[in-house]
Write a structure and sequence with these properties.
With 877 residues, the chain is an all-alpha fold. 56% of the residues lie in helices and 1% in strands. A two-stranded antiparallel sheet has the order 1-2. A two-stranded antiparallel sheet has the order 3-4. Helix 24 (429-437) packs parallel to helix 26 and helix 30 crosses helix 32. The longest helix has 19 residues, at 189-207. The chain is rod-shaped.
């Protein structure tokens, strides 16, 4: 061809119409397929339209044999010629026989018109609609990409009516590239619907023959602009027997336009996916590759349309599906369903993965599903798993936020968290309480109440942590913020519930310094008894004093409530000062005989020490002396009676001025002269003479010495003799006329009783005193005492001698003379025992009695031989 062209080319300028015809229709026919665009351009460079038409018609015959590239290049030359000749090409001379745009194309471009760009044809005012059947699929695509064309549904339908199945590929090739060039991303929905429906309708019979690549081309390259018009009918066209690969390419194509689809459309796509996968499930595995990658399986087979699936759909279609590993691809409901599926979660790490991809704002909805499942199947959820759920809520649930109302919080507490709190681990108690600190008092109380209902499931360690956290909650930062009055004890009971109760030390630490009396005052005596009677509640004795030092019902408590001995023991030191300071007889009696009746046995050496007792009221001290002297058992105590006396001595010796301590003649309660009895009592046996003179000076003793009770008190043989003698001497020193009859029997034995005192008594008192002397002095009566007493006898009988006993030796001769002989004889058994007769007394007696020799009796009177009796000289009555 090149050789031929080089020969004839120089002659082109001289060619007539017949020449052009001869060469392009006859001579060069077989060579024209090799006729290049350069040759054509040379040939047509200076040719009129008539001859040009001859060339075109000749080239048209060779068109089928020309390569695709050659066709395009020749087309470009033809278009170039027409553009150059635009001024004349449509003149009558050039339009001879041309009645339509189609004829114009045939005349000026022939079959090469299909290779021209539609935009080039528009230059010649060609109407695309009128030449539609002459346009190639690409040109039809270009036509539709013209402005306003896509808004013309009629045109669109015409274009697709003209397209064959074979043309669809090239049409969409051009349409997609042209749309990309125009940055065309959306098409008017009605037109879009039409294009998609017509395309799929045309493709339908061919779809079963497409491979995965074919579906990829159509759904990921050609149709994305139109897929937003998909509906259920779209998927009815797709055969269900296509391969998994083909199916997955369809899913990917739809997934690419997911954001452009309505919810209904995404549901329709999902319906297609689930239908296909169920049809292709084998042994619980659907479209599963050997790699067994759950992430890839999920993305390939569902794409974003997985949002409409249930977690059960996944495990049904892939029975070894591991949702935890693809948690970031799952929706909230799927994650919740995963978590709610028994035995799916076994470790803390699995829970952590799930919760990490769950937004905190979705926690409520998540646990609305999961918590009931845990409650229904508690055995399928380990403590580790439940703890991990709780930790996530504590870390990110923001339950402390004021934005969460109390109503919402209680929903969380009672419904969502309740199943998770079963078997609560110790380490999660503190963060739980941290939330409660910022909630209302009602909410925090509801939390503790809930934990109390679960107590049977909680370990001892957890219960201890709950107790500690409850205690910290009460202590701050606003102490007792939830106390609103009423019994403080009941408040604490309702707060701690079954998780223990503070011991005494802790209890007192909960009392703000300025509110101790107020808070303790709300506790009834029975409640306080109940508290103090709890095992191990009393730990340090000082703490219980905080209670009673601030409790305004202490006396009622002591009078009405009984507590264990260990409590009594530590309570006594706290109330002891109150008892000692009581200053009326009724109060003293109440303290010692009622309130402390069961406490006094726990008195200690320190409590009865002078340090403790020194400031006691006189009346209280009186009572203490009485109790310790008469009613106290020392067997189990760590102190003795001597210790008590030491305190008595200090008390009576200290704090007095010139007067006797605790004696006041103007005070009806302190003017008793039984002072020694009142303030020394049975401890008088410990008194020394120095003590006595210290307690009461010599000048002060007068008022007390004659008091019968005092006299009786000092008539104790255990008292030091010098003390007794001093007492007696002072008694008669102040009152020489004091009758010895008033003395206790033991005092009569003292040499300090003046002889004169015995001489002043009458005969009856004499007899009385003689009996007392015989009883208490063991026959060691001073002869002078005997004489003094005997001198008081006026009438002597045998009984008198018996009563006088050895004191008979004190009778005067004149008194003896007055006695009849018969009395003397009847009294010989008594008289003969007396060794103190003097000669005159004996002689008198003998003279009175008739001398009678008694068998085996050598002595009538001691020292007087019987044979000396002169019987004739005795007067015998």
């Amino acid at each position: 061809m090149n050789r031929t062209f080089s020969i004839i080319a120089p002659h082109f300028p001289k060619f007539k119409t017949d020449d052009w015809f001869a060469w392009f229709h006859v001579k060069l026919v077989t060579l024209l397929p090799s006729f290049s665009a350069v040759m054509l351009k040379n040939a047509t460079s200076d040719i009129n339209c008539t001859n040009y038409h001859v060339v075109v018609s000749g080239m048209a015959k060779a068109f089928p044999s020309i390569s695709s590239q050659g066709q395009e290049e020749i087309t470009d030359v033809m278009v170039g010629y027409l553009e150059k000749s635009v001024s004349v090409i449509n003149t009558p001379v050039c339009r001879q026989g041309i009645q339509s745009d189609a004829q114009w194309l045939e005349k000026n471009l022939g079959p090469f018109s299909t290779r021209a760009k539609y935009s080039d044809l528009k230059v010649f005012n060609i109407s695309g609609v009128t030449v539609l059947d002459s346009l190639s699929s690409k040109q039809k695509a270009e036509l539709l990409l013209e402005p306003n064309s896509l808004s013309n549904e009629t045109l669109v339908r015409l274009v697709f009516t003209e397209l064959t199945v074979e043309d669809l590929g090239s049409f969409f090739d051009k349409f997609v590239s042209g749309a990309a060039e125009q940055n065309l991303t959306t098409i008017e929905p009605r037109v879009r619907d039409t294009i998609l429906n017509l395309t799929l309708l045309a493709l339908g019979p061919k779809l079963s023959m497409l491979g995965a690549e074919g579906f990829k081309l159509w759904f990921q390259v050609y149709l994305p602009l139109f897929l937003p018009s998909m509906d259920s009918s779209t998927f009815e066209i797709i055969p269900r027997n296509i391969s998994c690969g083909s199916y997955q390419e369809i899913v990917k194509g739809c997934d690419n336009v997911f954001t452009l689809l309505s919810v209904k459309q995404t549901q329709q796509v999902f319906t297609f996916t689930i239908d296909y996968l169920r049809r292709h499930s084998c042994s619980g595995l659907s479209c599963v590759e050997s790699l067994n990658d759950d992430r890839r399986w999920l993305e390939d087979n569902f794409g974003q349309f997985r949002v409409h699936a249930s977690y059960n759909d996944f495990v049904t279609l892939k029975n070894n599906f591991n949702g935890v590993e693809v948690a970031d691809l799952l929706t909230l409901s799927q994650l919740a369903e995963l978590a709610a599926t028994p035995s799916q979660l076994k470790t803390m790490q699995q829970v952590t993965k799930i919760m990490a991809v769950t937004s905190s704002v979705d926690f409520g909805a998540f646990f609305d599903i999961v918590s009931p499942a845990i409650e229904a199947h508690p055995a399928n959820y380990t403590e580790e798993v439940k703890s991990a759920f709780l930790q996530a809520v504590f870390d990110r649930g923001n339950l402390s936020s004021p934005a969460i109302s109390d109503t919402e919080f209680l929903l969380w507490l009672k419904v969502r968290l309740s199943p998770l709190l079963v078997n609560l681990s110790p380490g999660l108690v503190t963060p739980l309480y941290d939330i409660a600190k910022s909630r209302s008092c009602n909410s925090s109380q509801e939390m503790i109440t809930l934990l109390d209902t679960l107590r049977i499931t909680l370990s001892n360690n957890t219960q201890r942590e709950i107790y500690k956290s409850t205690l910290l909650f009460l202590q701050g930062p606003t102490p007792l913020k939830c106390y609103n009055g009423g019994s403080f004890y009941v408040f604490l009971r309702n707060t701690f519930l079954s998780f223990g109760f503070p011991d005494l030390s802790t209890f007192t630490s909960l009392l703000p310094q300025t509110r101790k009396s107020e808070l303790l005052g709300t506790i009834s005596p029975s409640e306080l008894r109940q508290f103090l009677s709890e095992p191990n509640v009393v730990d340090k004795s000082s703490d219980i004093c905080v209670i009673f030092n601030n409790y305004n019902n202490t006396t009622t408590f002591l009078e009405t409530e009984d507590v264990p001995d260990n409590v009594k023991m530590v309570t006594l030191p706290c109330v002891w000062p109150l008892a000692l300071s009581s200053n009326s007889k009724s109060e003293v009696k109440s303290w010692f005989d009622l309130r402390l009746k069961n406490y006094l046995r726990f008195l200690s050496k320190s409590l009865i020490s002078s340090t403790e007792v020194q400031n006691a009221s006189c009346l209280a001290f009186q009572k203490l002396v009485s109790v310790m002297g008469n009613n106290f058992t020392y067997n189990s105590s760590a102190f003795g009676r001597g210790d008590v006396y030491t305190t008595i001595r200090t008390y009576l010796s200290t704090g007095k001025s010139s007067s006797v301590r605790c004696y006041n003649t103007s005070d009806a309660e302190l003017n008793s002269t039984s002072w020694f009895v009142s303030y020394i009592g049975n401890f008088v046996t410990f008194i020394t003479l120095d003590d006595l003179t210290t307690f009461v000076s010599t000048s002060q003793t007068k008022v007390f010495l004659e008091d019968p009770a005092n006299l009786q008190l000092f008539s104790n043989t255990a008292i030091s003799e010098n003390v007794t003698n001093y007492y007696i001497s002072q008694l008669f020193a102040f009152n020489p006329a004091f009758s010895p009859v008033k003395l206790p029997g033991f005092f009569l034995c003292s040499s300090e009783v003046p002889i004169a005192a015995y001489s002043s008594v009458n005969e009856n008192d004499t007899i009385l005193l003689l009996n007392e002397l015989n009883k208490f002095c063991n026959g060691t009566v001073d002869p002078e005492v005997s004489a003094a007493l005997a001198s008081n006898i006026k009438t002597i009988t045998a009984e008198t001698f018996k009563t006088l006993g050895s004191a008979s030796g004190g009778l005067t001769s004149s008194q003896i003379t007055s006695v009849s002989g018969s009395v003397l004889i009847s009294s010989l058994s008594t008289l003969s025992t007396i060794s103190t007769w003097n000669q005159e007394q004996a002689t008198t007696i003998i003279q009175i009695m008739t001398c009678i020799r008694f068998p085996d009796q050598h002595w009538i009177l001691p020292g007087i031989p019987w044979h000396t009796c002169c019987w004739s000289s005795f007067k015998v009555n």
